[in-house]
Amino acid sequence: MSGVFDLQLLHIASQIARGEKIPTHLTGLAKVIQGLSTSFLSYAARNRMDWNKREAQRLFAPEQGGSYDVWFTRPLSAILIEYLTDVHIFSHLLTALLPEDQRAIHRPAIERASSRRLNIAHALDFSKDNPRNKLVDDEPFIDEIVSNCSSSVRTRISNERAELLRIQALPVKDRVRTRGGGPSAMQEVSEALRGHRTIQPVILWDVVQFICAHNRWFSSEDYMAFLELAMSSYYLTIKQRQTCSDWRSRNGAHKNQRYTDDECYDYDDADSD
After folding, report:
1. What value, to the nearest 5°, has the Cα angle with vertex 134 and ends 136 and 192?
2. Residue 54, Cβ neighbours under 10 Å: how many?
3. Cβ–Cβ under 8 Å, residues 71 and 80
4. pTM of the full predicted structure?
5. Is the distance from CB of 192 to CB of 204 less than 8 angstroms?
6. Cβ atoms < 10 Å from Cβ of 198
7. Backbone phi, then psi, for 94, in 5-degree steps?
8. In this predicted model, what pLDDT tens digit does every residue of 206-225 receive, in sequence order?
9. C-alpha distances in angstroms, 159 versus 33, 165, 166, 170?
10. What is the torsional sign of CA 165, 167, 171, 172?
11. Phi, psi of 227 (to 5 degrees)
12. First to last CA, the chain
């Protein structure tokens, strides 16, 4: 199928474009509509939609005692007819969520992500009851939407993601700290650099930075061996490996140093010593 435009994905794009926090879960269309201005849909019309949806589901949803066979009866129930004709609201929902000029910018990304979601739904192992169906876990879609936003929105989201990674990395950094110096403190991180999933890949670089910023905790021999491993690890980017090479040449990163490389994060004393 082509030309499918997922309104839930459009809602996510509109949230990101307005500079709101990237959501972790899809929002049901009923909640999306409830959140819109009354100039789009009056309270009376919303209540009527909600009532009609509940009544229609009682007729056709097996889990509510209904049967899909009602769709084959003629004449079709008036409740089902109204349930079907409510879709005219969706065309107005396009403009309510995003103006036409912004929608045109984000349309290719939304259509590609819609196609990916359809492929998942058509898979033989798909289950409508799987809670993962409601997750916003399409990173290419999110990245494409963000790249089309204003520079201020891109900067805010970049900072938000960096902060989230630092928070996720705190337990690992705490384990490094409590183990003290020596190879055992680096073992978990070293295993991750070799490809073992001892640490989530997304937080690996933040933990590597933490070790390098506190190189005085380790013997020179252990620390240099760690840097050699990081410099050759395929689980770090080329820029990150080059940064490790620079640190090796000066015997370690310096705490509180501010890195201009967009893949390195600023350090402070909040989680050290």
Report:
1. 50
2. 12
3. yes
4. 0.59
5. yes
6. 15
7. -55, -50
8. 888 888 888 888 888 888 88
9. 30, 10, 11, 17
10. positive
11. -65, -40
12. 57
- As given in the structure block, the two tokens for residue 273 are 């010593």
Q: List Cα–Cα distances, 243 to 102, 148, 210, in angstroms.
A: 38, 29, 13
The phi, psi pair for 25, rounded to 5°, reads -130, 150
Which of the listed ranges 18-27, 60-69, 79-88 does the model predict with the highest average pLDDT? 60-69
Both tokens assigned to 163:
């902060």
* Rounded Cα–Cα distance for residues 143 and 247 (Å): 30
Q: Are 136 and 237 in contact (CB under 8 A)?
A: no
Residue 244 is encoded by which pair of tokens? 């490790």
Report which residue type is found at 245. Answer: S
DSSP code per residue over 182-205: SHHHHHHHHHHHTT-TTS-HHHHH
